[in-house]
Amino acid sequence: MAITIDRLGVGDEAIIQQLALEDALFGLEPDVDEPLIALDEQAGRQFLANPAVLYWVAREAAAITGFLYCVVVPLRSGEGSEVLLYEIGVHHQWRRKGVGQALLQTMEAWMAEHAISAVWVLADNPAATTFYQACGFAIESEQPTYLVKNIEHRT
């Protein structure tokens, strides 16, 4: 298995559109999960042009086997920034073959190159928690409460 990992950038809008439409194949329940609404080309270009966006894809030949999406978060103290691991997905046919670990190693190498030492993730299911712990993540003793507020846009 020869996996290559590349960071996406402007010009790769079609890849993130494809991944949105094929999202169920990278989710926990490929037969149940719905596709995402893909960004249009302009929004995709803006997303990939954002220097805070870190988006890698793993491939075996031409097939995308996994992806990792992170955001560099600027801080007002300490090292000045940290990484939020927002989403990782491995195609259901490629699970347990090291794709997720390879993506995390790529992220960690990028972090080392950019002198960022902290990364955090919100694991929302037991399988994700187990995976992240196996990759060296630790559960913090105090956990924050996750709150969401949706703001309606008036047109």
Could you walk me through the main structural features you see in this protein, from its secondary elements to its overall organization?
With 155 residues, the protein is of the alpha+beta class. The protein has a single domain (3-134), classed as Gcn5-related N-acetyltransferase (GNAT) (Aminopeptidase). The protein is 27% helix and 24% strand. It has helices at residues 13-21, 41-49, 99-113, 126-134, and strands spanning 3-7, 53-60, 63-74, 81-90, 119-120. Strands 1-2-3-4-5 form a five-stranded mixed beta sheet, with helices on both faces. Helix 1 crosses helix 2 (41-49). The longest helix is centred in the C-terminal third of the chain and has 15 residues, at 99-113. The N and C termini lie far apart (50 Å). The model has no long low-confidence stretch (mean pLDDT 92).
Helix/strand layout:
Elements: E1 3-7, H1 13-21, H2 41-49, E2 53-60, E3 63-74, E4 81-90, H3 99-113, E5 119-120, H4 126-134
Parallel strand pairs: 4-5
Antiparallel strand pairs: 1-2, 2-3, 3-4
Helix pairs in contact: 1-2
